[in-house]
């Protein structure tokens, strides 16, 4: 860990020297403070409560290249395999951490769907207003992201506007890239009574280790609605830490669906702050991993204002030597009366060597609330298997039907038919299901 920390220190000095005119900007002051925070805290260890079940050493042992040449050899024919082909979308595409204009479909008409660098260069006043306002630099990885991030997505939807089609954000890593440590930074701002659908994916085409440290700040103003999909289907040498913070004003609605279906190491840290009355947050998660993969969901929902609602349901299926972690925290402030908050985590373990650690938490400081939480960890339901087998269904198909039924509650939350079918197809492949069945 110390060797990688020294590499980051020397790389930050080089990075600062490349900023030229940006050195005096408010953003660079934020970068400096963030890196100072990282120097102070360093990388978390298993002695830290939030990381007690997650060992970072296998991830950060590689000789990652912090900066690499802008080659961008990914061609449209290869990239389009991963685009939604039947759904008309806007696209913001990055290749090896750089914006790929020839693969993207962006706009500045009615709303801004473009890049983080465009935000910094074209709209510095918006950057000063929003960037860094939600991210907590007491976390080592968000501090690193703020210090190093140069590119990512920027979405701004003005008041009373509905984005006419979904927005895809795709991060590609090519086979030409060395072991890479990438740090995309994104900002999403939805004005009053606006609406948008955002689909976020990380796609590694390289056999080399890839470590993506992503951070996103999302502001939902009064009455805004965001449907946010995070689809994680990366290969075995890919690792991802995703920190996304949402701030919800009154009557706004967040629908977040996360599907973690691949990757050596995946950690999702969604933080939701309901700061005004009548805001709603709905978090749905599905995990299916095998081999020695790890998926860690650390969720935090903060009910700061009264009369708000949150629903949270995460489901996991774990095979091989995989490790699943769920730590969900719901906080209800003293004055957040009339809060409705529900949290549930259900897991199926398919192997004796798979491990699941689950810790749902409620911290309630108000007395007029409806809150519940719970978790389950178990194997396949033998009674259900027996019922299906007695009706002539083969063992493999009976098992598949039960897994599909278990996952279906989450998959059904995906409102885009093509994306729903894509997730279903990957889920079937992970479970060796070779017949079609409507989830």
From TrEMBL:
Q: Give me any GO biological process, just one.
A: iron-sulfur cluster assembly
The domain of life for this entry's organism is Bacteria
Q: Any idea where the SUF system FeS cluster assembly SufBD core domain is?
A: 180-406
- InterPro entries named among the record's database cross-references: Fe-S_cluster_assembly_SufBD, SUF_FeS_clus_asmbl_SufBD_core, SUF_FeS_clus_asmbl_SufBD_sf, SUF_FeS_clus_asmbl_SufD, SufBD_N
The SUF system FeS cluster assembly SufBD N-terminal domain, residue ranges: 9-169
Regarding protein family, the annotation reads: Belongs to the iron-sulfur cluster assembly SufBD family.
What protein name applies here?
Answer: Iron-regulated ABC transporter permease protein SufD
């Amino acid at each position: 860990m110390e060797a990688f920390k020294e590499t980051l220190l020397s790389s930050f000095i080089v990075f600062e020297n490349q900023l030229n005119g940006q050195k005096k900007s408010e953003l660079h002051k934020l970068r400096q403070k963030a890196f100072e925070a990282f120097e102070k805290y360093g990388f978390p260890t298993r002695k830290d409560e939030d990381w007690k079940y997650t060992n970072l050493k296998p991830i950060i042992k590689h000789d990652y290249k912090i900066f690499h040449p802008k080659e961008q050899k990914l061609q449209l024919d290869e990239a389009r395999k991963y685009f939604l082909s039947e759904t008309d979308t806007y696209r913001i595409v990055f290749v090896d951490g750089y914006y790929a204009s020839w693969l993207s479909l962006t706009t500045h008409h009615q709303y801004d769907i473009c890049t983080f660098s465009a935000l910094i260069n074209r709209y510095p006043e918006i950057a000063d207003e929003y960037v860094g306002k939600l991210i907590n630099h007491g976390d080592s990885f968000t501090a690193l992201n703020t210090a190093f991030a140069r590119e990512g997505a920027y979405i701004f939807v003005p008041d009373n506007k509905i984005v006419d089609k979904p927005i895809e954000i795709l991060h590609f890593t090519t086979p030409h890239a060395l072991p890479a440590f990438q740090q995309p930074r994104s900002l999403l701002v939805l004005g009053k009574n606006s609406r948008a659908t955002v689909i976020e994916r990380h796609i590694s085409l390289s056999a080399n280790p890839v470590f993506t440290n992503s951070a996103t700040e999302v502001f939902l103003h009064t009455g805004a609605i965001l449907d946010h999909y995070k689809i994680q289907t990366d290969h075995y040498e890919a690792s991802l830490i995703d920190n996304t913070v949402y701030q919800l004003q009154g009557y706004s609605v967040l629908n977040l669906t996360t599907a973690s279906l691949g990757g050596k190491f995946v950690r999702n840290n969604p933080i939701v702050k309901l700061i005004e009355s009548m805001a709603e947050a709905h978090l749905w998660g599905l995990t299916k991993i095998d081999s020695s993969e790890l998926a860690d969901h650390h969720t935090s929902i903060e009910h700061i204002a009264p009369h708000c609602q949150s629903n949270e349901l995460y489901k996991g299926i774990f095979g091989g030597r995989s490790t699943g972690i769920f730590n969900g925290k719901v906080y209800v402030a003293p004055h957040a009366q009339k809060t409705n908050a529900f949290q549930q985590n259900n897991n199926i373990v398919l192997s004796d060597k798979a491990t699941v650690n689950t810790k749902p938490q409620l911290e309630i400081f108000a007395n007029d609330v409806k809150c519940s939480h719970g978790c389950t960890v178990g194997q396949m339901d033998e009674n259900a298997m027996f019922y299906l087998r007695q009706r002539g269904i083969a063992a493999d198909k009976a098992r598949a039907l039960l897994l599909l039924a278990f996952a279906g509650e989450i998959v059904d939350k995906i409102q885009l038919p093509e994306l729903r079918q894509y997730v279903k197809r990957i889920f079937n492949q992970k479970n060796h299901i070779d017949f079609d069945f409507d989830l």
